[in-house]
Records
---
Amino acid sequence: MTTRFETFETMKLHVITNNVHFFRAIHELARGVHPGLKTEHVSEEAWIFMRAGDAQNGDVLISDGLNLEICDPEQNLRNAFAVVGTVCHNNDEVLDWNWVSRNDFVLRLRELSPMTTENVITEDVVVQSSHVRLARFRIPTCCKLIPALRDRLLTGLRDYHVVEGTMEHHFCMALEEALNNAFYHGNLEISSELKEDGSSRFIELARERELLSPWCNRYVYVTELVSAFGLWITIQDEGKGFNVKAALERCDDPEALLASGRGLLLMRGFSDEVFFNNQGNEVTLVLYAEGEDRELPLGTCNSPGNETRLVLS
C-alpha cells in the first residue's frame, strides 16, 4: 500500500504600499513577465499589523521604501525603483531588504518560478498488522516536509504502545535532529558552523540549494519498523556522509563539542541505541518498548487495559 503526503505552494508577490500608482506599476510588470503570478496589495498599516504571518515561506515582498517602519533597506540606489525582500518563516522575519532598479526587478521576476509546485512524501507500507508495521518512505529534499515526516514517524510510538509521555517527547527531539542532519547537512551539504555565527545564512543557503542541482535532485529515504517490542527508524540521505568516528570522539570531549556533536548527543541520549553506516550518510535510531508486555510471547498480555497481542496464523 502506497500513500502520499502532499503540500502545495503558490508563490505570491505582496506589494506593500499606499501608493496606487506604484502597485499598478508592479502588477503590470509582473503580469508581463509571468501572467500566472499572483500579485497581492497590502496597505502599509495592514503590513505593520500582520508582518510576515500571513505570507508563505519564499513569497516575495515589494515596497516603495518610503516607510522605514516596514523595511530597513540597504543604502538607496541612484536609480532605485523598489525595495524587495523574501519571507522566511524559520526565522519569522523578512530577509534581504534590498533596493533594486526597474531593470533588476524585471530580471528578478524572470528568475522566479510562480508555478504551483508539489512536494510529496511517498510512503510504501510493506507489512502492517496488529503487532508490526514495516514502511518505507521517499522524501524530496524539501526541508519544510520535516515536521510532517516527523509527526508521521512518531505515530508508531502510540499505535504500538512503545513509550509515552516524557520518553516520547525526548525521542521526538532525537528523531528531529536525525532528520535535520539528513536534509540540511547530508543532502544540502550545509555546515553546522553557519548556525553558530548568528546570521540567517544557514536558512538562506538551504532555500537556495533546494532549487539548485545537484542538491535538489537528492532524496531522503526512511525505513520504519515498529512493533510492541520497540521502534527502529533508519534514515539515509544521498550526501557525502561524515567521519562518524571523529564526530563521536568530539561528543566525549566537551571542549571540542560543535553543533554536530550536540546533535549526536541528543540522538544518543534520547534513543536506546544509535547505529551509523561506515559512510556516515545513514543512521538508525532504536527505542525499545518500556512496558512489561515486551518480555511476553505474542498472544499474551500482562498489563491491564492493554490490547491482547495476536499471533499471525
---
Amino acid sequence: SGRRGSSGRSRPQRRAAGAGSGDGAAGRTGWKRHGTAMPSWSDLDTGPNRRRRGTDGASFLQRVSTVRFALIILAIATLFTLYVGHVHATQSLLADVQKARSVNQDLHLKHNRLKGEYDRKTGPSVIYERARALGLRESVTYGPKITVE
C-alpha cells in the first residue's frame, strides 16, 4: 500500500460515513484513501518535508527557530547596552565624587589656614602687646572691692 507510518504495522481501519474510493489527488501524491475516515499527518507528509526527529548531530543554530534566535540576539544586545550604560554612569559618578573630595579637601585646608590666622591675631600674647601699647598695666586686681552689707 502507499501508506507511510512510524512503524511497519498497519493501523486499524475506520469506516467514515460517505467515504468513497477517493481518487481525486491520489494519483498526484501517491496516497490512496482505501475508504478510511481521514488520513493522519504522517500519511500526508512527504519525505523531504518531514521534520527531523531528535537532535542527531544538529547544532544549536539548527535547533533554534529564527524568531527565538532573533529574540536571543535582541536580549543579548539589550543587556550589553545596559551594561555599557551602567559602566558609563558609574565612571561619571566616580569622577563627580573625586571632584567633590578635591573641593572638600581644598575647603578644609582654607578653613584651617583662616582659623590659624584668626588665632594668631586674637591670641593672648597679641592682646597683651596691644594693651601695653595703649598704656594699660598688668595687675592682679580688677577694680575696687565691693562690700555687701
---
Amino acid sequence: MNQKKTSPEKPPTKPLSGVFLLLFLLALLVPVEIFCAKAAYTTLGDLAGAIYWAIVIVGNGLVFSVAIFSRVAASTMAILLGMAVIPYQIQLMQRQASVQAEAARIVAHAYEVKLETGEFPEDLGSYTFEQANTSPFIGFRSGEEVGGFLVTYFVGTEDTSHWYSPKDGWRYHPD
C-alpha cells in the first residue's frame, strides 16, 4: 500500500484586500468627517459641533474596534458613518457660502445707498437678491440702536447667528 503523506492544514488567512479596502475608506472618509465636524461649529453652533465631533471620534473608534474581527463589517460601518456625517454638513457648507456671499452683497448695497442718499436703507425693498433661495436665511434691520443697519444670517439653525453692523463689523455667535 502506498500512503500519501498529508500535511497539516493551514489555517485560513484573511485576504489583504479587505485590509486595503478598509484603510482606503478610512483615509478617504476620516479627514472629510473631521472637516465636517469643524464646519458644524459655524453652520449649526457649538453644541451641534460637539455632537459631530463625538460622532466622528466614537464612530471611528467603533470602526477600528470592529475591524479586529471583521474587515467587511468595519468597512460597512465606515461607509455608514461617512453617510451620516458628510452629506448634510456639505449641504450646509454650500448654503453657508451662498448666504454669506448674499449677506456681503447686502452690506455693499447698504453702503452704496448711503453714498447716494446720505442714509442707510430702512429695509431691503431696493435690493434684488442675486440668489433668491438665500432670502429666508437673511435678516435686515436699520436704525441708530444697531449702529446704522444690521445684516444677520443663519445657516442650519436660527439659534446660531452671523451678523454685520457698521459699528461691530462681521461677528458670529453660536447657540
